[in-house]
Amino acid sequence: MAKWWEKGIQFECQGSGRCCVSRGEYGYVYLTLEDRRRFAKYFKITTRAFTKEFCEKEDGIWKLKEFKKSCRFLESKKCSVYEARPTQCRTWPFWPENMTPRAWDKEVRSYCPGVNKGRVWQAKEIQGLIRKQAKSEEKY
Ligand code: SF4
């Protein structure tokens, strides 16, 4: 069956920082080992030190700690660690769970000002990001 996004999706981050703010079930930044290594390199510390200082486990999955109302790295609506941001931040909004018409409307369109702005992401690119995110979730 053809995907609703087969002809692409227009999306461009507007820098609202809204995807870095807690709402409903969204209030976690999960981290793979690769994500923690990238962060450690960025902070010039060991992965172990980064994990100890910035991470905690919930249900066996590593996530950033101190995510209260928003991510601890969100400053003035901007990601202060953009270069080192984890996979889930890189693949937003093309997460597997967002890609039904209903979820897209509820979790993305109604919420994120980047929808219908800027460039059109082609189906191939979208598929690539969905896969990347799904693979990352397998490594949590
Ligand atoms: S790491 Fe950066 S992009 Fe990811 S939720 Fe935190 S502030 Fe947002």
In short:
By secondary structure, this protein is of the alpha+beta class. Helices cover 35% and strands 16% of the residues. The strands form three sheets. A two-stranded antiparallel sheet has the order 1-6.
Give a structural overview:
This protein is α+β, with helices and mostly antiparallel strands. The chain has one domain (9-138). It is built from five helices and six strands, in the order E-H-H-E-E-E-E-H-H-E-H. The strands form three sheets. Strands 1-6 form a two-stranded antiparallel sheet. Strands 2-3 form a two-stranded antiparallel ribbon. A hairpin with a 2-residue loop joins strand 2 (55-58) and strand 3 (61-64). Helix 1 packs across helix 2. It is globular, with a radius of gyration of 15 Å. The two termini are 30 Å apart. The mean pLDDT is 94. The site of iron/sulfur cluster (SF4) has 9 residues, from loops.
Ligands, ions, cofactors:
iron/sulfur cluster
Query: Sheet with the most strands?
Result: 2 strands, antiparallel
Give the termini distance in whole angstroms: 30 Å
Oligomer: single chain
Topology, number of strands? 6
What is the N-to-C order of secondary-structure elements (H for helix, E for strand)? Answer: EHHEEEEHHEH
Assign an overall shape: globular
Number of helices: 5
Secondary-structure-based class equals alpha+beta
**On the 0-100 scale, what is the average pLDDT?**
94
* Structural domain count: 1
DSSP strand (E) fraction? Answer: 15-25%
Radius of gyration: 15 Å
Percent in helix:
25-40%
Defining traits:
globular, two-stranded antiparallel ribbon, binds iron/sulfur cluster, alpha+beta, 140 residues, two-stranded antiparallel sheet, 5 helices
